[in-house]
Amino acid sequence: QVQLVESGGGLVQAGGSLRLSCAASGRTFSRGAKAWFRQAPGKEREFVAAINWSGGNTGYADSVKGRFTISRDNAKNTLSLQMNSLKPADTALYYCAARQSPNYSDVIADFGSWGQGTQVTVSS
After folding, report:
1. Which of 2, 43, 55, 96 lies at 20 to 30 Å from 78 by C-alpha?
2. What's the Cα-to-Cα distance from 114 to each of 45, 81, 94, 99, rounded to whole Å?
3. Distance between CA atoms of 49 and 120, rounded to whole angstroms?
4. What is the rounded distance in angstroms from the CA atom of residue 13 to the CA atom of residue 22?
């Protein structure tokens, strides 16, 4: 089992930037695909960005494309999400997720390991 811990959330004004990080423990972290999801109050959890095991295949939700960048460092067992040009609509609890398969996925049900989440609040 992989344990995931997110950090880097906070309060930022619209147009600002934040960088989320996800630290993992567990031997299989570097071999599996990873993703970021988010959940706003009263809404369902939704896909944000995903990356395969090598980092060579990434994908983004249309709402964040061109503003967010996902990356990973397998040597350090970390996953990151650089968020620029933030909007109030980006306000949510952001979750790091991992799966054992190395293949890219953006489907919630494919991910078996989840962090506790880090809050991102964007003020207008």
Report:
1. 43
2. 12, 15, 11, 9
3. 15
4. 23
